[in-house]
Amino acid sequence: MHGWCKSYSSPPTLCRLSCKKGHSGPTYESLQTVFDRKPFRPAVNLSNPTIANISFTLYAVLGVNEKTQILTTFLWLRLYWHHEFLVWDPDECDGVTKISLPVKDLWTPDIIVYEFVDDDVSQDCPYVYVNHTGHIRYDRMLRIVSACNLEIYTFPFDIQNCSLTFGSYMHTIKDVRVSPALSFAEISGNSKRYLEASGEWELVVIQGEAGILQFGIDEWDIITFWVVIKRRPILYVVNLLIPSSFLMIIDILSFYLPPHSVDRASFKMTLILGYTVFLLIMNDLLPSTANGTPIIGIYFSVCLALMVISLLETVIITNVLHHNSMKYREVPRWVRVLILQYIARLICYQKPEDSPQASEDKLDNLGPWVTQPSAPAPHPTSNGHGTPVQIPVIPELKQICQDLSLMRTHLTSMQKESELQDQWCHVGYVMDFLLFRIYLFLITLYAMVIICMWCIWFNQ
Fold first, then answer.
1. pLDDT at 331 over 80
2. What count of other Cβ atoms lies within 10 Å of the Cβ of residue 40?
3. In this structure, how many other beta carbons lie within 10 angstroms of the beta carbon of residue 178?
4. Which of 306, 322, 309 has its CA nearest to residue 261?
5. Per-residue pLDDT for 291 more than 80?
6. pLDDT at position 365, please?
7. Within a 13 Å sphere around the CA of 119, how many CA atoms are in the beta-carbon half?
8. What is the domain extent for residue 204?
9. If pLDDT is split at 50, 70 and 90, which confidence band does 187 have?
10. 60: part of which helix (H) or strand (E)?
11. Is residue 2 part of a domain?
């Protein structure tokens, strides 16, 4: 047959397509002969494998589903292989060196992505470019939904490393070999130019290696590309970390409210309610997997726990300042020794000036005028004859003395109550000062632990 190999033992130079004068390119009859042999691998010697060269450009990262561990990407895939029967002489074919042919009529290597986990809904390119030497270039767009082991521990500062393994599905290493058409650095550089300004993810690097996949006694030639992408965290920093930090700062500043006021407790309860609503809204932004929880989720949980501890501290101080003082019980001795002496000195707490001193001074000024409620003794006097005369007691004066005595008793009781309240307030202030310092220490320690964990991860 003219234009076809005389036999499989013939050299490849004899496998040429025929051309006619006045026609540009190979004739339809010679191409039809090639089309009829589409089911067969285009090799003169079937012991020689067909080499498929692969390159791609990562155009976009369409989505990362942490819960199902799926990465969705969009690639521009380019395949090269040699068709030994599509060879012609450009001098005989009016100088034509390249033609396009329908891909459905030619044999194509069955290159797939091994991590593919969904139906291929990509649009196929209907044509391929064929060079006069038999080299074919096939370009197509791929929407790849691939399985990937996603690490979300450092979210939103996470870096994902996903693999895309290209290889033949049916043909073993004896029939089809795969190799990269470009170097891995060129593939990475081309992808960065298209991906650097699009979407949430930023391409770090694309690396790869060739390998052999073995099942039983059969072996398949494969190429594994490692796509390393990094999340842009600015969205989550603005929407998650900064609002949470503001709420924590407000919670710390709430300790400067008067501890004997009920407004501090209500303010903290309102703050916890607002933080809970914030967590509910934030739940849609946080990734979730069955393998673990991101450290930012632990951060939010600990912040909520610290707010609850802050509210419990306010409840304790309120109980000390109000409940005990209303019963007018004296401060136990061990409390005075432990809190008012040792702890107050330890935290450098200075007691404010005593306010009941003024009322005590007033009581001292009333001392010459206020007597006990006993009737005044009559003062004997003498008349002109030397006989003592009894002066009668005036009832109004007696009543005034009794009223003054009751007033002194009431003021004394009020002074005692004021002293008890002052003692309990002093105890409450010292405890509030101590718990506030402990709360600041816990928050500082917690912040240092978070920063150290992030630095360790960053250095790795």
1. no
2. 10
3. 25
4. 322
5. no
6. 47
7. 2
8. 12-232
9. very high
10. strand 50-65
11. no
Which structure tokens are listed for 96?
Answer: 């034509």
For residue 163, what are its two tokens?
């693999």
**Same-domain status, 399 and 433:** yes
pLDDT confidence bin for 414, thresholds 50/70/90: low
CA angle 227, 230, 233 (to 5 degrees): 165
Max intra-chain CA distance, the chain: 179
DSSP 3-state assignment of 167? strand
**Pair (280, 406) in one structural domain:** yes
Same domain, 241 and 203: no
Q: Binning pLDDT at 50, 70 and 90, where does residue 363 land?
A: very low
Q: Does some domain include residue 4?
A: no
Buried b (16+ CB within 10 A) or exposed e, 318-356: bebbeebbeeeeebeeebeeebbeebbeeeebeeeeeee
Domain co-membership, 192 together with 242 = no
* CATH number (domain holding residue 154): 2.70.170.10
pLDDT at site 162: 94
Closest by Cα among 296, 295, 253 to 271: 253
**Both 261 and 168 in a single domain?**
no
Q: What is the pLDDT of residue 416?
A: 63
User: How high does pLDDT run on average in the chain?
Assistant: 79
Q: Is residue 385 part of a domain?
A: no
Domain termination site, one of 232, 247, 269: 232
In percent, how much of the chain has pLDDT > 90?
Answer: 27
Strand residue runs (E) in 66-158? 70-82, 98-102, 111-113, 127-131, 135-147
Asked if 172 and 244 sit in the same domain, the reply is no
pLDDT single digits (tens) 212-224:
988 888 899 999 9
**Distance from C-alpha of 230 to C-alpha of 233, rounded to nearest angstrom:** 9
Residues 221 and 268 in one domain: no
Which amino acid is it at 134?
Answer: G
DSSP string, 339-383: IIIIIHHHTT--PPPPSTHHHHHHHHHTTTT---SSPPPP--EE-
In the beta sheet, which residues pair with residue 226? Answer: 163, 207
Assigned domain for 5 exists: no
Nearest to 171 by CA among 287, 40, 62: 40
* 196 in the same domain as 183: yes
Last residue of a domain, one of 232, 258, 275: 232
Q: What local confidence, expressed as pLDDT, does residue 355 receive?
A: 43
Tokens of 456: 């360790």
Q: How confident is the model at residue 257 (pLDDT cuts 50, 70, 90)?
A: confident
Q: How many domains does the chain have?
A: 2
